[in-house]
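Before the break, one more example. Copy the sequence into your notebook; we will annotate it together after we see the structure.
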Amino acid sequence: MVGQRVLVPSIQVRALASELWRGKKNNYMEIFSYIWEYYLYIPLFNFLVWLYINYAFFNLGLAVIILTIMLRIALLPFTILTEKSKIVGSQLSEEISKIRKDFTGDTVKQKELIRLALKKRKLHPWAKAIVLGVQFLVLVLLYQVFVGGINSEAKLHLLYPSITRPDFINTKFLFLDIGQHNLFMAAVVAGYLFAEILINFWERRGRVSKQEQLYSLLFPASIFVLLAILPSVKSIFILTSLVFSSIISSITALVKFSIKQTKKSNN
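Here is what the structure looks like once it is written out:
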């Protein structure tokens, strides 16, 4: 009948909507896969091989170390912001402690002054998130580079025409094959992390809670288990990045010490 409203059963509507969503989801996945393959994975693989041929003396372990250092230098502006936030955070903590001490009985005044102190001193928590996020991304890409063997035809045919194709990529570095898992390297990384945590506890010179004690044991242990089952290239990447971070943290500690000394001399 003309003008009569046609009703589509709700089941058909839901099925149609589900089909459209699946199609849209597949399109998103295809776009993501294309970006991952052609803008992240293949460029990183080519760059790693280029470093291996030109600057690492045909040593893939050394190429990974150079790659890690270059990555950390590229992320240095965000690392500096992170370290600056540590200094500001330390100063802020001291200022808040002083406010609470000076206005013990006046909680309203405490909140007002603390709010002003937080507003005056800017922290950049997002900077650390960027540094960690980019490093995690490269870790995942490195896993893809080594999974299935870096010397396989499926990998080598991905090289750009401008990159000289090596007959064989040497994965031996010092005493280990970085394409295979290595318990010793996993233990070195876990031990380094544990030492860093202990140093951090010592620098704070405060009481360590049971949760922090548990963290100091479980976190390095979980890293050891994870790295023990992954190619040791991950251990080399993480250890190089940790050493780089330690150097930056040492510089930050010197800056904090000089600031304290300046304050003492002014007082």
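The chain is about 75% helix and 0% strand. Residues 1-8 have pLDDT under 50 and may be disordered. Try to locate both features in your own notes.
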